[in-house]
Amino acid sequence: MTSGAILDIARDGIVVFLKVGGPLMAVALLVGLVVSLVQALTQIQEQTLVFVPKILAVFASLLLLLPFMGDALAGYMGRVAVRIATGG
């Protein structure tokens, strides 16, 4: 296996990682931002208030995006398996 092939597999893995993790991180960021804005506007400074809405939003988006995430991971595994089967 050449160094170019290894770099291709690593690059593909990073892209798949970003496709799978990016939407969940974006949802968590947006919910955290909205809750922080509400806390600032209402002057409620409870630190644990952020966690429950963020967990619920991430869980809901996980259920919604799970087919997309599974498809991205299965496609990556298929591409890696083809490289293993063909020897590079």
UniProtKB/TrEMBL annotation:
GO BP annotations, alphabetical order: bacterial-type flagellum assembly; protein secretion
Pfam families: Bac_export_3 (PF01313)
Annotated transmembrane regions: 20-41, 48-69
Superkingdom of source: Bacteria
Topology in the lipid bilayer: Multi-pass membrane protein
GO cellular component term, pick one: plasma membrane
Keywords of the record: Bacterial flagellum, Cell membrane, Cell projection, Cilium, Flagellum, Membrane, Transmembrane, Transmembrane helix
Cellular compartments annotated: Cell membrane; Bacterial flagellum basal body
Known function: Role in flagellar biosynthesis.
Similarity field: Belongs to the FliQ/MopD/SpaQ family.
NCBIfam families cross-referenced by the UniProt entry: fliQ, PRK06010.1
Name this polypeptide is given: Flagellar biosynthetic protein FliQ
Species of provenance: Bosea spartocytisi
Gene name as annotated: fliQ
